[in-house]
Specification:
The complex is a heterodimer of chains A (about 550) and B (about 170).
Chain A (H helix, E strand, L loop, with lengths): L2 H9 L9 E5 L2 E5 L5 H10 L5 E9 L7 E8 L6 E8 L4 E3 L8 H12 L2 E3 L54 E5 L11 E7 L2 E8 L7 H6 L7 H5 L6 H16 L5 H29 L4 H21 L8 E2 L2 E2 L7 H24 L2 H7 L7 H7 L4 H5 L6 H4 L20 H24 L18 H6 L1 H13 L6 E9 L2 E9 L7 E5 L1 H6 L2 H5 L4 H11 L3 H5 L1
Parallel strand pairs in A: 2-5, 6-7
Antiparallel strand pairs in A: 1-2, 3-4, 4-5, 8-9, 9-10, 11-12, 13-14, 14-15
Helix pairs in contact in A: 6-7, 7-8, 7-14, 7-19, 8-9, 9-14
Chain B lengths: L3 H12 L5 H10 L4 E5 L2 H10 L22 E5 L7 H10 L5 E5 H6 L20 E3 L6 H17 L4 H4 L8
Parallel strand pairs in B: 1-2, 2-3, 3-4
Helix pairs in contact in B: 2-6, 3-6
Classes of the chains: A alpha+beta (about 550), B alpha/beta (about 170).
Chain lengths: ~550, ~170
């Protein structure tokens, strides 16, 4: 019995399931629920242990429909790695109960759906704009909003807590001192902004303002053909760009129903693991800087440069590689590249040992991080934590093990798990993951499969240049694909990969045209960072800074 | 046989030089740029490489990274500036003391790049005056070093900067 029929039989006595829709398409289970039942259904699915994670909440706009909006929930079960998509159609002006009482992690996702589509969530305590600026009028991801209609922002937002920017709440009372960190601040990464109210050095309450790097990724994806979206994905988590390429292409390939060749899979795994290493290098290196240790940054950056050199050899770009194409890779690896990777891995292993002695064994580092701002496993799940932070809290969930792809099932590697969920454990997990990535790369490099680096479906992949210029068939296929575009079937899929920060998911809706109809990114650090005000409450300002660093919040994927 | 005057001349050449005051000030300025890295996005990561051990901006006298606009004279805008960020950037620029210079690093900072989008400022020169544009997405560290060297030459030659002289702050705040 499939999971969906099991759910159906259990829902039947409790709800009038005749109004529900159950279907399975492209390997995803979908449940369509009317608005009146959604909260109870979600509650049942959570309490019966069917699904413990709320991975994502988002909206989709179908202006032609009578009920033009869909609110889409993605649920996940960490035991058997099964997923369920729950959809609720909504009419214009209708509201829907907030899922916040069930999962704390729904908070920012619902705010984003409100910001982008104007969908109202009843019972949400702080339903206001999150990504666009406070003077922005309208809801940009609605289909009637033009992608390039800019609206200028002429004033900065004052310090505010739960209230609107205009009403400053009870800030500036006599006892507490409000301070503003960011969006341009030495201790803040990228464009994050934290507003905190302090009692002496202790954080009484904090609030995050994000969206300072909202580059409209999702709108850009809707206005570009499938393959042209790939460079945009590079710039989501730019610390580990190839992973985003892989995640996106894997999603489109799932919709197309194609399996990429073994060689392309191996190359993708190597790229992903190299990216995981360099992403953790940034996290650990700059984490050290935030604690006052500059050496770790300089030392680790030498290794990052070595990976850049490998990427340059592979494709010519250092940071934003755009190396994958839908259906495989853009080109084959040059001769001797895999040997270069092996040489690097050997050096990296030594580097990891050095850095772990330098940091994890350092008395100051231990004092600053051990036992600071811990997150319990249950809280981490409720917030929607994934990746190293979830594992640091003691939940051994990794998509490479629980739902393996690209041959991870045949590789030997361990999933490091922490115990306390404090800052120290997070670095411990990251450094151990770098070691495991080295192991994976070595195994893959030792036996790289031969064969082609991409599929050769003429409706998906452009022919090679020698064919385009050399024979009429190649020229025609090239012409047809460029003019007509890559057109996947009508439908929708959700697919996720284990990125350096956690589960990087893409929810793709296709209407059969050459551009994605809707592409929702589920960025790992979006779910993680929303817990920040709660996590740092009662800790000191310096601990809050260390916490931001350990969360490795990358503004590119946070704000998109 | 060295006469007394000649000997004094040689001596003075070994420890002193004659120059114009503005030239030596320019020489000092160009070799002691204190950058404020305004890294907002991907370019910020490449900027780390520029500062890092391999490319090492210190070789050009610009290693003293200051995150306070009051202490820096070179604003390195590295990354996309969104509409939400624009007023913040203007404020940071106005807080910097004269003389001050701006390098716009990368396509996004220079023109909005491939984000012709509803929330992205189409180039930071819409709100602040920019001296050097470095192309690339992101630019290679070599390109950034080239941009810094270009700025150094501009400072040395006292190149007129009408874009800065005629700049009017947007009527914010």
């Amino acid at each position: 019995m499939s999971k969906l029929t099991e759910i159906k039989s259990e829902l039947a006595p409790r709800f009038s399931v005749s109004q529900f829709e159950f279907n399975s398409a492209f390997g995803d289970d979908v449940l369509v629920v009317p608005k009146s039942d959604i909260f109870q259904v979600l509650q049942f699915l959570r309490d019966s242990g069917k699904f413990d994670f709320l991975i994502d909440v988002c909206g989709v706009h179908y202006p032609q429909r009578q009920k033009p909006f869909d609110v889409v929930y993605h649920l996940f079960n960490s035991k058997d790695a099964s997923r369920l998509r729950v959809k609720v159609p909504l009419a214009e002006g209708e509201s829907i109960p907030s899922a916040l009482p069930l999962w704390k992690g729904a908070d920012w996702f619902e705010r984003e759906a409100f910001d982008m589509f104007g969908i109202r969530f009843d019972g949400h305590p702080n339903l206001r704009k999150i990504l666009t600026h406070h003077q922005f009028a309208g809801h940009p991801l609605r289909k009637d909003y033009e992608a390039d209609r800019q609206q200028h922002c002429t004033e900065t937002l004052p310090i505010h807590f739960d209230h609107d920017g205009a009403t400053r709440g009870d800030v500036l009372n006599e006892r507490y001192m409000p301070i503003n960190l960011g969006p341009s601040h030495p201790a803040m990464h990228g464009t994050l902004r934290v507003m905190a109210e302090l009692d002496g050095e202790t954080v009484v309450r904090a609030a995050c303002e994000i969206g300072y790097l909202h580059r409209c990724f999702e709108k850009m994806a809707e206005t570009h053909p499938y393959n042209q979206v790939i460079p945009y994905t590079d710039r989501l988590n730019y610390c580990s760009a190839p992973m985003n390429n892989v995640g996106y292409c894997k999603t489109v390939e799932k919709l197309l129903g194609v399996e990429i060749p073994a060689r392309a899979q191996a190359m993708r795994v190597i790229l992903c693991e190299l990216s995981r290493i360099i992403d953790h290098i940034i996290a650990v290196g700059t984490g050290g800087v935030d604690l006052g240790a500059l050496t770790s940054f300089f030392h680790l950056f030498t290794y990052r440069e070595k990976v850049y050199t490998l990427f340059e050899k592979l494709c010519g770009a250092r940071l934003t590689v755009s190396m994958t194409r839908i259906g495989g890779m853009a080109q084959d690896a040059p001769e001797g590249w895999f040997d270069d990777v092996m040489v690097f891995v050997k050096e990296m292993r030594q580097g990891i040992d050095e850095i772990s002695q330098l940091m994890l064994g350092n008395k100051i580092f231990i004092k600053r991080t051990q036992g600071i701002a811990p997150v319990k496993a249950a809280d981490a799940i409720a917030w929607g934590y994934t990746g190293p932070l979830l594992r640091a809290s003691g939940v051994g969930l990794d998509l490479r093990k629980s739902k393996p792809y690209y041959g991870y099932e045949g590789l030997e590697f361990d999933i490091p798990v922490g115990t306390n969920g404090d800052i120290y454990d997070r670095y411990l997990v990251r450094i151990e993951e770098m070691r495991q990535s080295c192991r994976i790369i070595e195994q893959v490099c030792r036996s790289v499969p031969g064969g082609d680096y991409t599929i050769r479906d003429k409706g998906i992949v452009l022919p090679e240049k020698k064919d385009v210029y050399g024979n009429i068939e190649g020229l025609m296929n090239h012409f047809m694909l460029v003019i007509k575009g890559l057109r996947p079937p009508v439908g929708e899929v959700y697919d996720a990969t284990e990125a350096a920060n956690g589960e990087l998911g893409f929810y793709l809706v296709s209407d059969g045209s050459a551009n994605p109809y809707r592409l929702k990114v589920r960025p790992p650090c979006f779910a993680i960072y929303q817990s920040f005000p709660t996590v740092v409450k009662g800790w000191q300002v310096a601990d809050a800074i260390a916490t931001v660093a350990s969360m490795n919040v990358i503004a590119g994927e946070l704000d998109r | 046989m060295i006469t007394g005057t000649q000997r004094h001349d040689d001596m003075s050449r070994s420890f002193a030089l004659t120059t114009r005051l503005d030239a030596i000030i320019a020489w000092g300025q160009k070799n002691a740029l204190w950058p404020m890295p305004y890294g907002t996005a991907c370019c910020g990561i490449e900027l780390m490489s520029v500062m890092g051990p391999k490319y090492d901006l210190a070789r050009f006298g610009a290693e003293v990274v200051r995150f306070s606009p009051r202490q820096s004279d070179l604003l390195l805008v590295a990354g996309t500036i969104t509409e939400k960020m624009a007023p913040v950037l203007v404020r940071i620029y106005r807080q910097m003391l004269e003389p001050k210079f701006v390098i716009s690093m990368g396509a996004c900072a220079s023109s909005g790049g491939f984000y012709r989008a509803y929330h992205v400022l189409q180039g930071c020169d819409k709100v602040i005056p920019v001296d050097v544009y470095v192309p690339g997405c992101p630019p290679t560290p070599e390109a950034v070093l080239d941009g810094v060297m270009l700025l150094q030459r501009m400072i040395q030659k006292r190149t007129p900067r009408p874009w800065k002289d005629n700049w009017k702050a947007p009527d914010y705040e």
